[in-house]
Amino acid sequence: MRYNEKELQALSRQPAEMAAELGMRGPKKGSGESGPGRDTGSGVPRRLVKLVVNFLFYFRTDEAEPVGALLLERCKVTREEPGTFSISFVEDPERKYHFECSSEEQCQEWMEALRRASYEFMRRSLIFYRNEIRKVTGKDPLEQFGISEEARFQLSGLQA
Amino acid sequence: MKLNERSLAFYATCDAPVDNAGFLYKKGGRHAAYHRRWFVLRGNMLFYFEDAASREPVGVIILEGCTVELVEAAEEFAFAVRFAGTRARTYVLAAESQAAMEGWVKALSRASFDYLRLVVRELEQQLAAVRGAGGPALPLPLPLPLPLPQPLPQPLPQPLSPTPAPPLPRWPTALPPKENGCAVWSTEATFRPGSEPPPPPPRRRASAPHGSLDLAPFARLHECYGQEIRALRGQWLSSRVQP
């Protein structure tokens, strides 16, 4: 699939919602996509992991360009061993990207942030707030922005 | 750069409603011809397919950080998706009618995650303001008459989640994990999962037997909680039907 890589690279340089050095392991080999990239030595590769909008970028710790990016739509964030979580995607739950954190707190923080990082989650939040405000005030808060008729903000957007 | 292209393709073709879709002509390059492609806008991603029946996109334009403008072009109803940066590409697209062009320009200029986040934060603040952050544990009596709630699976006012309530405006953490979508909860004070059940209404008549409280405040309490819970259940049930 073609994509505008330059723009994705530019996005990876934007200020991050969260960034940290974590241990990262990709899905097992033989399943198509490979993991975080070549590495010397043993142990789990360390990556600078950066959350920008609905993308998770991962860099080798001494490089300016990311090794790769994960679009976080339709993903599932699961706790694994203590201090470790994984990201997988709805269509292939067995292929997991594992992340090792330095503490339980860090692990919890990342899991929360990643669960809320998708566009689709944001959209549901907006629809929820819109309805709640409408319930209390009787007014549609999106009218002030001139976007109350926008297809992407309708309640029908919640149904599969 | 590696990208989870397979997941991208699934996001492009999943069943959820799209934000816009239709045929557009896409200019191949600066001096290239236009190709007619089926475009699907979902979130901040603009996918394009060979045709409407294709199962896999030819490509995707990641829209974050773009501007959308009308352009002077030989092609009618043309517009451009432009990015900042020295070697950034400009995508010139052309719709098949004035109305389609306007629809696309509007949809694409509001497609960024940043824009959505801004609106969500604004609404978050508005909701906190109209409800009064840190309000009373009991719901305020609502001005409109409410229908009595239908029987609920759990007795009121059981906490619906075992975790302690997070402070406003964060979402609760221990919801049934889903694919990156959470059941949408109200985190505001009138319904706080894990908190103590609200105190019973005060007794009116000292001589009454232990069960006979003034029923009016309780009925209203019951209505208010019931309405909240029905709304929450409705939201949760509809968000379980995942895109």
UniProtKB/TrEMBL annotation, chain A:
UniProt xrefs under InterPro entries: Boi1/Boi2-like, PH-like_dom_sf, PH_domain
Region called Disordered, residue ranges: 1-42
PANTHER family (UniProt xref): PLECKSTRIN HOMOLOGY DOMAIN-CONTAINING FAMILY J MEMBER 1, SESQUIPEDALIAN
GO biological process, one term: receptor recycling
GO cellular component terms attached to this protein's record: cytosol; early endosome; recycling endosome; trans-Golgi network
Domain (PH): residue spans on this chain: 46-119
Protein's UniProt name: Pleckstrin homology domain-containing family J member 1
Species whose genome carries this gene: Aotus nancymaae
Gene field: PLEKHJ1
UniProt-listed PROSITE patterns: PH_DOMAIN
Pfam families named in the record: PH
CDD domains from the UniProt entry: PH_PLEKHJ1
